[in-house]
Structures are given as C-alpha cells and as structure tokens.
Amino acid sequence: MSKQARNSMAAIMTVLVTIVMWMTAIIGVVFLASVGAAIFAHHNGGSIDALNISITDGTDSLPALIAGLIGGLVVIPAIIYVCVLLRRILATLADGDPFVPENASRLSRVAATIAVTQLLRIAVALVVGFSFDHAKIGFNLDLIPWASVAALFILSQVFREGTRLRDEEKMTI
Amino acid sequence: MSIRVTLDRVLLDRRMSLTELSERVGVTLANLSILKTGKAKAVRFSTLEALCRELDCQPGDLLVFDEEGEEGRRRVAAE
Q1: Between chains, do B40 and A171 touch, taking CB under 8 Å as contact?
Q2: Closest-approach residue (CA) in chain B for A173
Q3: Is A173 an 8 Å CB contact of chain B?
Q4: What DSSP element (H or E) covers B28?
C-alpha cells in the first residue's frame, strides 16, 4: 500500500470512528436521561431491550429499566473508550509507524473492554433478574463478541512480536 | 552483550574517519555510529563484508567475544 493510500485510509477510518464516538456519546446521554427519567417517574413503559437483555415483568417494567440504565452506564463509556483507543492506533498508522508497543497494549485493552462489557451484560441480567420477584431473566450468549475478544488478544500478541522484530531490524546494521 | 565491536580501534590503526568509512561502505554515518558504540543488535554479513573489504581486515578484527568484560560491567552497575 502506498504511503498516500495508507494515509487516506487512516484518515477515513479516523473520521468514521470519530462519528461513531460522538453519536454514541449523544445517543447515550439521551438514552440514559430518558431511562433515568422513566425510573424516577416509575413509568409503565414498554420493555427496554438494551444489550440484548430482556427482563420482563408482569406488573411493570422497572427491572428492564434498571437493567437498561446499568447496561447503558457500562456500554456507552466502553464504546467511547474503544473509539478513543482505535483513534490512537489510527494516529500511529497515519504517522507511518504503527508497530509500537503501545498499540499492542491498546489492542489488548480493546479486547478486555469488550470482554468486560459481555460479562457485565450477563451479570446485570442475573442480578436485576433475581432482585425482582416477578422478573424473568433472558439473555442470548452471543459468541461473536467472544470471538472478537480472542481475535484481538491474538492480534495484540502478533503486534507485540512484530514490534520486537521491527526494533531488532532497526538496530541491525 | 558479550560481543564487543572494536571498529574504533581498527579505524584508528587505518587512520580513517567514520565519515570516510561510511562513504566507502555505503552505510549511513548514524548506523555506523550505532555499530561503533556497541548499540547494534545484529550485523548483516553484507555489511561485515563491506567493512572487511574497505578496512582490509578479518571479521575477527572487528568483533571480540568478551564475556568477562560484560559480567564485570554488570557487577559494577549492580554495585
């Protein structure tokens, strides 16, 4: 890939990641505000299906709202954090030197963030579900995020090794 | 590393500057400095060949295995 193509690819990706980041922030604030308001008013609304968690209650939707609020409080900052890390990786790509040790740890952190949100998704469903007598717990075990976590951890190790080899090559006369 | 580069001594014997050597062997001055100061992690055979040709010497004249020296330096650093 030529330097110009690489730079324009990095620039396009940076713009996309930035858009996702800001949209998540804006939608997240609106979502959290509305869920918070609904809980505050003990509003009998429809079920909120955040994070693929559906907790339904025969009498009111409070468990679903609380699950949505906790889920949103975790997932929204997680998406923003992943976007920040991806932007930093893209910045090193645009600079023409992505094989730095920091990028290996950034990829690990992206993987860890996805893993934590997935675990919290299950934990929130269980905790909120068991906290309410009439709540029914239901969540889908999604294997795609876990496959992404594994792929990202492997990639970060590949990156670490690549960085080491690059350093060695740099100091080879 | 226990491998010590004695390029400075060979250059002194030949009365040749690092700049002149860099022009002759086609290796940048910065890279030759890395080699001379012992910061290099590896030397390509092609570089070694060019150095030996221009300095009229053997690889053994440029490189010395000095385990004692390295351990001694480490001991001093630890103390």
Answers
A1: yes
A2: B43
A3: yes
A4: none
